[in-house]
Each structure stands twice: as C-alpha cells, then as structure tokens.
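Final report, results section. Input specification for complex C-07:
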Amino acid sequence: MTDDIAALFVENRSYPPPADFAATANAQPEIYDQDPDAFWERAGRERVTWFTPFERLSEWNPPYAKWYIGGTLNACYNCVDRHVEAGAGEKVAYYWEGEPTGDRSVFTYATLQQNVVRFANTLKRLGVRKGTPVAIYLGMVPELPIAMLACARLGAPHTVVFGGFSAESLSGRMNDMGCEVLVTQDEAWRRGRPVALKQVADEAMASAPGVHGCMVVRRTGGEVSMREGRDVFYHEASAGESDDPATCPCEPMDAEDLLFLMYTSGTTARPKGIVHTTGGYLVGTSATHHHIFDIKPDTVYWCAADIGWITGHSYIVYGPLCNQTTSVLYEGTPDQPDKDRWWEIVERYGVTVLYTAPTAIRTHMKWGPEYADRHDLSSLRLLGSVGEPINPEAWVWYRTHIGGGRTPVVDTWWQTETGMILITPLPGITTLKPGSAARPFPGVEAAVYNNEGKEVPPGAGGYLVLKRPWPAMLRGIFNDPDRYVETYWSRFPGVYFAGDGARIDADGDLWLMGRVDDVMNVSGHRISTIEVESALVDHPEVAEAAVCGRADAITGQAIVAYVTLKGGLDGSPDKLAELREHVAGKIGRIAMPANIVFTPDLPKTRSGKIMRRLLRDVADHRKLGDTTTLADPAVVQEIQARAAAGDAKEE
Ligand code: WTA
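Structure output:
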C-alpha cells in the first residue's frame, strides 16, 4: 500500500463543466465559500420539513455527534406525504422494471403513499410499533422501498439485508439487531432464473428465535413453505387494510432516533451494524443528492445500485424521494435478456442522470460500445460513479460511449459509515480529472495524513481523514462502542479515519487509492479477508486459510484464498469447488474466492503471524517484498509455483 501511495499518478486529461450546464447548475461556485455550520443550518431548514424545528445545529462530544438537536420529523413524511400534500401526487416517484421483459409498473407519489400506508397498517398487524426492529430481505421489487418507508412511518428501525447473503449472514444480523419481524419474498428474479429467498429466510429464522412474524411478498409465485402463526403472505394479510394516510399517521421521531442499521464488513469476522439516525441522515443525503446530481423538477434519475447496500438506501430511497425526484428502479442484471438492457431502459424513460459503479462500467466496456450504440442515450446529461476507485480508462469510456462525450462524470467517494457522499466534484463547477474524486463537499473537511498524523502537502499521499463531523455520519456501531472508537477514532486522535489511502495533487484534488486495511473491494462490495478466512476454516477439512485480494480488470479486486488442508492432504478441483460453495453458504455468493491455491504451509513470521503482504505480492505477480522475517522462506517459493500453475490453468 505504501508503494501505491507513493506511486506518482500521471493523468493529464481534464474536462471543464459545459457552459450551459454551469449556467443552470444547482450548485454555483459561491457554495464553497460558505461556513460549514451556516451551510448545514440552511440545508436543515431547506431540505427537510420538521414537525418541531431544531433548536441547535449540532453537538460534538468526540467521537459522538448529534445534529439538528431538538428537531422532530418523520423520514417517510419527508419522502412521501409532504409531496402529495404539496400537490405533486401525480408526479412519478418510481418507474419500476422487472427483470422479465415487459414487467413494469409506475408509482406516483400518491400511489406510493397508498402502498406505504397499506404496508405499514399490515406491519402493525404483525406487532410492529415505534421501536420494533424489522429485517428486510428482498430483491429489487417495489415492496423494498415501500417496506422501508412503512417502517420509517411507524418509527420502526429497519435493517435491509442484501438478497445475495446467506442464511447465516441474515440470522447473524437479525440476532444482533434483535429483529422481531422479517419481510421477505418467495423468490427473486436474477439473471433469468428464480432465486429462493423465503427458503433462505426459513433457514435463517431457525436460528433467530426472536423473529416471531414473517411477511412474504409474492413475486414469482414459486412454492414456499409457510409456518402457521408466523408467516403470512403480504397480499393476503393486507387485503382488508386501509391505504388512507389518516389511518396511519407518520410517527414524530427525534432527529437522533435510529432510522436503520446497515451491516458492513470490517477487519474482523463479525460484520458491524452501522447506526444511522433520522434528521442528519435525511438532510445530508438530500442536500448532496440535490447538488451533486443537479436534480431538477424534470430529472429522471437512475441509481443502478441495489437497495441492499448503503448506496441504495441513500441514493435510491431516502435522498431522491426527499427531493421529490422521479427515479428508475430496475430489478435484474444488465444482460437480461441482452447486454443492452440498461440502455433500453435509459432510452425508454429518458433517463437524465445515471449513477453506477466502476465494476459495471468495466463490464459494459468489455461487452463493447455496440450495445449502447443501439439506443438513443441523448437524454443523459450527467453520469456518476461510486464504490471503488475508477480507473481513468473506464471514466473516459463512460463519458464517451454513454455520455456521448458531453456529460460531466462525478466520481463520488463515501462509505456505509459516512451515510452521504463526502468527496466529489460538483458538476457545474469542477474541472474534472478522470480518476479523481476532486474535493470535499461543502460543509465537509477532509485531509490526507502521513503515518505520524501530519497533513501531507500537495503531491503527496497518505491516509484519508475527516476533520469535522457531518450530518449523516454514523452515530456508532450497534452494541459495540469500543469497536467504534477503535476502528474510526484511535488511529489519529480527534479525526475520523476512513481506512482509505489517498493522494492530494498540486491543485488540491483528491485521488482515492483503495483500502489500507484487510478489507477487499469486490465489485464495489466490501468483504473482509478475515470473514472469508473464518468461513474457509469452518470447513472440517481445512487446517488454515489466508485470504487476500488481487487486482481484477472487471471487479476491481478478486478474492484469492491460500488453503492448507488437514493431514497434509493436497487439494483437487472438486475440493476447490466444494470450498467455494462452503463460503457461499457461510457468507453469500459475493464472498466466493475467485481462486483457491492449496499449499502445504502458509508464509508466517517466527511469531506465527501470517504475512498477508507476501500473499498479495504473489496474487498480483509482484516482486516479493521483504522475506527476511519469514520462519521458512521456502514456503513462499512453493506457493508462488503453485499459484503460477493455477493461473496458467485459469487462462
Ligand atoms: C470505496 C459505498 C474510491 C472506499 C458507498 C470506501 C471508493 C469503500 C469510492 C466504502 C470512490 C467508495 N473512489 N473508492 N468514488 N467510493 N469507495 O461502505 O474504499 O460499501 O472506503 O460504501 O468503498 O464502501 P461501502
């Protein structure tokens, strides 16, 4: 990593904002002149409707922040009801596209409200009240944002678990949060095939005894088993329920009341429940969404992430709806039925803003521009990227082939923990450099520190830190205050440690360089090396495992595992497949290693510590770093030879 940070990055291309874009942009250059407190004070008043106005802007008791103190509000009211009351009931909130072609529906703000009210009334029948923790395990169906908003309406905190996670991951999260109710669906459509979710949910509930009610949304109509007294079909349970908002008023919540938990991987085997509260989160996500994506009344906005991750929470559900945006919601994969599905969607709805991840851009790049060329993409005026560093080639390809060589591309840096975008260009102001996330959003203060906690000068690299609290920041790790302090606030006193390497260039623009800890980033998803190692070691035949990421042209990083089997046994292709499935069963398919290298031993220091740095060198075919501290230097040579043989087979 230090090598990467030190590496001189030469990228000379730059793109000033188009004049017409700049002239009408929501964010004008003066936005950077505002005092941070004045900026957030104003955003708090402008972006959100309060039941009771806040009395004080913020309070900072390191490492705990509070924002919009004394204010009460409801997230669902801000995202739905107030727009209907303001006469925008006929405006489209979501154009929903199912994966099977022709499967479409439209939700206006008025019909969204009716759906949310009916859902909330039905949740009440399962005992959900203010404060009841609810787990949501759904694919990208309209009921997903509807269920989240219904929870918010009732004041019931939710945790959404991405549909690709295993039963064990789901039960772990439900138990940690103390969930009492689970919302799931029979099956989800994925790449043309139904994927059983209720079945996984059944397995999860078997080890989550606190869950006493399960609401099942029917999507495919596939066979599911329903347990009497616990499981109900939504379409049946909701049949007699009212969709009149007067039957289910929005619960007034304190600005600092829990809105949701989002679990994310850290450097241990146990995911952490990131705490997001109501007021600051809503102001932060809506303010960033408004300025960064230049949202206008006629914007058709599409964030192609999954709502199961933070990007979907902040920039498909809460931010856009709070801003009364018209959005597209797409259920499936980009290659169903063909590789031009995304571009067909952009053309059909006249999408003006598209927000996606570098891994998706690189996939389209690999497929070739001919799929985009089949469609009229001239409605697009702005593109966004998130989730991992975007390589300049992918950035330029995106702007050229999707943006028609006209659109700004905003590379937005943030995290599950930050809740909102923190480092980003502003499309009407910033001269863009492919691969740079530019600078802190107004009201945000970032810096790059060296090892000693000193700010580095322009041109140098180090660790990204945030120097002042921001409204949507995490309020802690659920049930684990020590880990909160240790992970984010102990590396450098008084500042938030993001865990990312960064460089600052001569103009003061930031270049993000990837994680500096044992967290991999596969297709924009954070996966902990230790979590995958624990899953492997859980297999009865595995003695030891070490996991690291290697560079991958499409997914950013790919997972490589080095495994020692018990009894000195050698691995086989069957064993490899079995271990990959084992990891899928423990964590989910997203965590399956791309390759497993079987080895009689792992490189260790004399004190027995696995030297992951060397394994990363092997995985990336780099010259090995210092090996003098190894207990047995021959081990790495053996691993190198085996890895090389494996690579040859893969190609
Ligand atoms: C990485 C996703 C470079 C980074 C919103 C961060 C990025 C982690 C960018 C958070 C970007 C996200 N450039 N790296 N524009 N955006 N990252 O919690 O390593 O899933 O720490 O949140 O993704 O991932 P998370």
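Residues 264, 309-311, 386-389, 411-416, 437, 498-500, 512, 514-515, 521, 526 surround WTA (CB under 6 Å). Residues 1-8 have pLDDT under 50 and may be disordered. This concludes the modelling results for the funded period.
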